[in-house]
Amino acid sequence: MVFKLKCAGVRLPHVILFLALSKLTLVHISLSSSYESCRVPDSFCNGDKLSKLCEEGRLKEALHMLELMVQPTTIPPIHAYVCLLKGCSRRKALAEGKQVHALIFQSVLESNIFLANTLVHMYSKCGSLLHAHKVFSNMPQHNVYSWTAIISAYADSGEVEEAINLFQQMQETGLASDKVLFVVVLKACASLAALEQGKQLQSEIIKRGFQSDVIVGSTLVNMYAKCGCTEDARELFDNMSERNVVSWNAMIAGYAQNGLGKEALALYEQMKQEGMQPNNVTFVLLLKACASRADLEQGKQLHSEIMKRGFQSDVVVGNTLVDMYTKCGCTEDARELFDNMSERDVVSWNAMIAGYAQNGLGKEALALDEQMKKEYMQPNNVSLVLLLKACASLAAVERGKQLHSEIKKRVFQSDVVVGNTLVDMYANCGCTEDARELFDNMSERNVVSWNAMIAGYAQNGIAQEALALFEQMQGKGTKSDEVTYISVLSACAHSGLVDQGRYVFNSMCKNHGVTPTKEHYACMVDLLGRAGCLADAELFINKMPIQPDSVVWMTLLGAARNHGHVEIGRRAFDHVVKLEPKNASPYVLLSNIYAAAGRKDELAKIRNEMNEAGVKKMPGCSWIEVDNQLHAFVVGDATHPQSKEIQAELDRLVGLMKKAGYKPNLSFQLDDVEDEEEENALCGHSEKQAIAFGLINTPFRTPIRIKKNLRVCFDCHKDHLKNCWA
Prior knowledge:
The structure is a single chain. This protein is mainly alpha-helical. 68% of the residues lie in helices and 3% in strands. Helix 20 runs antiparallel to helix 21, helix 26 runs antiparallel to helix 27 and helix 29 (463-475) packs antiparallel against helix 30. The chain is elongated. The N and C termini lie far apart (83 Å).
């Protein structure tokens, strides 16, 4: 209910008493001349001083100044409240914002629609959607700015569906939208990929004549692109009567986000031809397009343009450059750029750490964490997730435990992403019991949590636990996804559960609506190949409804190597080389097959083919963590400070193993040398060096965890050898 109260001749305390007795939350007051007599003059208010305090973030002082103005017979000017509310919004100062709200109510101004809209905005920016909604609900009337404020509040808080629902409610009131509101709701549609609602909005926009507005047009382009309709977005873009840099960025972003990096770069060339100057956002988008395509040459050209245009000091551009170089495999260039950045934030450090981790340089990623702490840069949850992944890649469980302690101190463990990564780290390091304890105690779990634990069991050969957890997952009502089935099939493959694996694969699509991907087919080939069913595996590949990739054929080639099947190995090799001509792994595996079969002519031929193709074998490398220090060993390398002690330990072990019946497996050695030399070469394998180093540097019965970049050789993986070294 709205009252218009004429205050002429009525003292203000009586008005306040009346308002209190009436128990009305909001009253619209027409104060006329009496309001002017009650309000504090602007000169007394000293608005400039109040504004300065708010701009400097000295909100408590500004609030105290406002409190002194609020007297029974005086009301400060509205702009004083607005100034403070905007200051609270900027600083996200919810407590001070609530105090301003109380003063507004005390001053009988809460019914002022302009102030109410500002309150909604303040509560939204301070993250209190509940208070924003209460203010909005208690307003006796709403204008388009009121609706814009509350719809923006919901959209900014991630409640995008509710934002769209509120917009529909506003339309039912008959109130006409303005350009700003259309932009807000279009962005909401874009984030939800709500194409149909976006199209309806476009019709409304055309009816209202807003289609020629450059901001509205740019947001429409963005909406269509976010919904995957790049052709519609481009048609809109081409037909815009006016375009600014935001319009170009929207279209470039649309191409980049939809995997059309080439089109994004072509549009940038057109942008320059039409005389439109790019900004820092343009370069960020283009660099991301280069990163997604691993287009190093184009990335370097953009880097040169960035330098010419003076954007190199922009921290966001710098971070994206670091990311681009690492995505293109140029970690040294990325590090040089990182070290020379004039300003770095936590995102900069995360970009470099992620770059190392993505390129298999986990040791360097962990070293960067130490430097980060020395420079007093606090890691965030993203940093910790990246570092945990680096620990997982190196089986650096002690370093992972230190990070776990840090996560507990900083109350990050309740973050489901951090929790999932901890589970994955412990499982990758072979600590499945620790991983399971963490998993069971998670306050929140999603499908990724279940996948991490199932994959952990699968990687460690604990198939029955993996399958039991999979059944538990289904019983809890958590829907399995593609990754779940990859882990379950992998568990079946590692444990030789062929029939169960076939059942899971067939039911995946029929019963659970998951369409098999190349990864699932590769798991099935691995399942059949490990079980020795090579002919079935090859037939399975040939009947695949999708084109098999190099991973599928490499899986078959690995199985052929394990079971010594020359013909199937050769056919698998031919397919892999066609798909990945510079990959050394198929040459090595086929060489192993020929060497084991004693076919020296074919062995010499394949080695010549490898040399002619310019393919080089990656050296085997193994990592071990001792006393929180990572040690790397490369095959045949004798540069480690303890190399003499390591060799002596290996000689001792080999002597003990031979007494126990060990015979070196020389079938896969490629060089035509004497048996004694071949035995020495086998003992130089990186994993054996790492194990010997672990034995002489750790207490008795301490677990030794080795991480390798290549397959473990057959001589190292023989069952009798594992028993001798256990």
